[in-house]
Amino acid sequence: MIMRTDVLHAMRLARIDLTLVGRNTTVLFNVLLLPLLMAWVYTQAVGAEKIDGVAGKLFVLAGLPGLMLVFAVFVNLVNSFTARREELVLKRLRAGQPSGPAILAGSALGALVLYLAQVALLAVWMRRSEGVAVANVPMLVTVAVLGVALFCLLAAAFSGLTPNAELAQVTVLPVLLLVLVGAPIAFPADTLPGVLGDVSALLPATPVVEIARTAFLGGDHVSGGGEALSMGGQWLAALPSFAILLVWIAVAALLARWLFRWEPRHS
Fold it and tell me: Which residues lie closer than 8 Å to 261 by C-beta, 6 or more apart?
């Protein structure tokens, strides 16, 4: 009964979140359109050469879900959690019927809806411009759910480090820059030399990029090479990336529990 009530509260809070996002043109641009604009810039930069056995433009587009997570989930929720904490919204919510996990789950659910809408737009873009359909829909949905869970937890942790909503844009910069520069969106992770390749492979967005690319294209884009795989082979190839993603979720959960605050920092 308690779990059912929490689910209902989470769905109600997610609906409210989506309504607020729909009324804020700045958030809509940052969450939905800015990643697609950056994707277009990436595709212009790679040119016509092949990367990992596929056209450069296709390679970039298939890895874009890892970049989308940073905008649709992480940046958006760090701002949201911090602003609501400082305005005592989180404190009032927690004092009411919803439990703490239900409140966070509501934000995560709203972010998941936005993220899936982005991925759907990306799939349409790839279908129309490149003639490529998603090869493994269940894998793409699975990595979307796990990726949103990870970056929601990271957002909760980073919001605890953020003094106020005005500084939220500064707090998210390290993660944003790491993903933009280090995640293998426009290059395979194993092409970077030495320690740079190791760092790129262990970034939280990297497993999402590799799994999404494998799901979109149906080839092995985890260990590299891009050779075509069966449905079962795609899941097997993606297991190392799924393992890294699950480890990151566990780490992020610990950080969120340690750092997240329900009340203003000055209280």
Answer: 85, 159, 160
